[in-house]
Records
---
Amino acid sequence: MRRRSIIGFVLVLTVAGCLIPNPPELALKQTPTVTSSQFEQTIVVSGTESVVPSGYTGSRYFLRSVIHKATGILAHQIYVDHYYDGDWKFWQSANDENAQPLNVRVLKREVISCHYGCFHEEVFGIDVADSTLRSHPTGFKVKVYAKDASTMVLELTGVQIGAQLRAISEASVAK
């Protein structure tokens, strides 16, 4: 009789675990995409994607560059979309490899669901100077810090940076 109770309990836990939705399985982009419209003042270049360390399926990061059409002014961010369960992390600051602080812009914080614990999504951008991208053709790393003392290191490879800079160059000529 005790064995049936244990099996029943395990079954309930298994079914309960299925109630916490995972974000949709997304294939990582392997090439940059350029978004532009006659109705917009900017061109957006979204780079190749990498998986966020210790994030759930769908957690990813990539370079995102914005080109102002009239002025040619260029701005870059490491765009991070992080899904996780448990308590809020509140990603809030970042440093480059030289321990220099980088600006973090919170774009979205959302509770996806709460059943037996909560599932969260945090989306944020880390500002990166154009000179930083161009002076690190082989890549660089950024360490991100959360209010709950969590950290993660995001690595941008030379391949990602090169592809991004080529896409920006092509988009600038085509505007």
Note: The two ends are 74 Å apart (CA to CA).
---
Amino acid sequence: MIKGKHIVLVCNTAQSLFKFRGYIIKNLIADGYKVSCIAADDGESHHLTDLGAAFTAIPLSRSGMNPLREIYVVFLLLKELMRLKPDVVISYTIKPNSYVPLLARVLGVSCLAVVTGLGYAFIQGGLRAWLARTVLLVGLSCARRVWTLNRDDAEELIVRAPQLSSKISVAPGEGIDTDYFDDRLFPAKEGGRFTFMMIARLLKDKGVYEFAQAAQKVKAQYPDSCFQILGALDPGNPAGLSAREFEKLCIDYPVTYLGVTSDVRKMIAESDVCVLPSYREGVPLALLEAASMRRVLIATDVAGCRDVVKDGVNGFLVPPRSSDLLAKAMCAVMALPSGDLYVMKENARRDVCEGFAAQQITGLYRSILKDFLE
């Protein structure tokens, strides 16, 4: 009997919970679960309460390493979990996955840790990254089950912490609402400027510079081509560009900044290709959204991206950190016959519907919660 069972979700920000897991939360509530959310309040928590979830703000910092502050945050998490008395806890992102599974074990509560990507701590070297990795692996070891969003992350975690092998599995992303992300809801893109769009936080390790440099190379060959970036600055991230750095990039290279939006569909519909030259991903939502809207994809051949992009089928994969090869792939798309371009777009939509639809992911959550609660 699930009615009244209490599920608590912990993430770094309220926006992240709503954007990536709103569909899951809505369906769990519809199933009869009581759902509470814990995250840093970034002004987006009202979306969660509108869905019917309770919300508690705790000042989780994604990148802060002040020991006293982190101890204080752990204390607040413990206090809140004791108050909420959950039947199951689900944690997302680096900091919650580092702390929450351990706290759940102390409280005798089953915990699912969802690794949304290994990111900075596994891309960079140095003491700070080593410490973040170590704390994360300890936390994950305390979870009852661990999901990664791609096979590369699962394999790397098992190599670094073999004890995880019995509890880790791969979930195909966090679900995309293919009915909502459907280009048929918008006017068909007319001819004109061929537009490449990059949708990402403005981080160096998302490949922002490679995109800008490639744009300059392609522009020299195809003067009518257009290059756009959609996404927010992330000053709290160690890899984040400052406002001044990004402003200079937009001056030095032929890219147009579109800012941020709560609904990316119209902008995707006005583009031709979605580009993500990232150094590492979980499973990139931007690529899934664009593919669901029948857009050709160009991404780097790295963890996460290669789970979405099939080279030559729905787009092209290129090595990371190479603006030359990225530019070559962009030119290759522009040179495709219209018939081949149409097939790639249809393949993109089909693959998302078959492998990443939100209904499938909801089924996985229902299955694991049933297992935990029996």
Note: The chain has a mean pLDDT of 93.
---
Amino acid sequence: MSLHAPETKKAAPNASGSVPNRFPWWRSALVLALVLIAAGMILLDGGINRPSEAGVVMDLPDSVGAYLGFNQDVTEAEKRILPPDTEFAKKQYIGGPLGEVNCEIVLSGSQKNSIHRPQVCLAGQGWTILHEQPATIPLPDGRKQRVRVLTLSREIGARAVNGYFVYWFVGRDKTTDDHFKRILYTSWDRLAHRVNHRWAYIIVSGMIPEKSDPQAPAAQRILERLLEFTRDVIPAVEKPGVVPEG
């Protein structure tokens, strides 16, 4: 089964050179309304605030295709910034066509600030987002799942380092690649179904060889292989009851 990298569209930078965020006002209003309704329900019945069972397995596989996985330590910055009941699974995979792939799962605890928009923390780490687009991955069981692909660049000394960052969110029984849709699901499911999702944030990332243009065919082939790796890891980390958003 072959995968094709999604067509990229370059966002217009602002005067500072960074890619601006676009978030329609009506989405903010809708999110706020649902959050307020859910908050009222919590006051009426505190039991709704208990997190549900996670939709992921917090144990990354020892191998994915030709890659062998090796456990990685959680950074001190992650431990310091995120709540103490946040759970992590983190491995580096080597040996396959890409040479090296990093994979991480961050599972929220009782506090919801474990999960956030990755664009925020990436910018804080010095990365510039060159492109952002969704990609649809055909899974081995015939279903499809959407993920979000970021093309990143960072200056290290006198050279630019480029890479791809693939991520998505997994709730108790659903997935999404959209942070704001995740907030809507959270509010609606708490209100309508009394489900308080314990969201997980899954990341697959890989680097582009030095001096390679992210838009060149060779770099796009790297992205295709990274999506192939993602396709293979999804069934290993998502529980059977999770319905992927395709």
Note: The radius of gyration is 18 Å.
